[in-house]
Amino acid sequence: MTTPPPQIPKLLTEREAAEVFGVSVDTIRRLRRAGRIAHTHVGGRIRYTERHLAAYLERETRPCRGDRENGLERSADAGSASGKTALPGAEPGSTDLLDKHGAHRLAQRIFNKRS
User: Fold this and answer.
1) Is 29 part of a structural domain of the chain?
2) Which parts of the chain are beta strand (E)?
3) Which of 2-6, 14-18, 60-64, 83-87 has the lowest mean pLDDT?
4) Taking CA atoms, which of 14, 19, 79, 88 is between 20 and 30 Å from 68?
5) Averaged over 6-14, what is the pLDDT?
6) Alpha carbon distance, N-terminus to C-terminus of the chain
7) Is the pLDDT of residue 36 over 70?
8) Is the residue at 108 inside a domain?
9) Each residue of 56-75: pLDDT tens digit?
10) Number of domains the chain is built from
């Protein structure tokens, strides 16, 4: 009785792995050097399998921020992407009269300095 030959996964070069992800070869190299994507050394060369690429994608998959079913609703204090946001700065009429005069005097001193 003969045993079937072992299933050897297809080995991809860095260029082929980069094409699968649609990124540059430099990006694949940075991910490998940072330890974020698994790889195999074959004869001193770097190779990737489909399992390596799938595992990386699985680890890097993040839920959508707008996903309200996963309890990711934002609090009322933080606001939301669809809610109205406050404009920066003070609204007209919200600054005390004394503050306006103080700001005016300070501006006069700064801009009227002779150098």
Assistant:
1) yes
2) 40-42, 45-47
3) 83-87
4) 88
5) 92
6) 100
7) yes
8) no
9) 999 999 888 765 555 545 55
10) 1
CA 111, distance to chain mean position in Å, is: 43
Q: Give the number of residues written for the chain.
A: 115
Chain CA centroid to CA 91, Å: 34
CA distance 48 to 55: 11
CA proximity to 57, closest of 65, 45, 49, 68 = 49
Q: What is the mean pLDDT of residues 65-91?
A: 60
Q: Is 51 part of any domain?
A: yes
CATH number, domain of 37, equals: 1.10.1660.10
Q: Contact 16/25 with Cβ under 8 angstroms?
A: no
Give the amino acid at 95: T
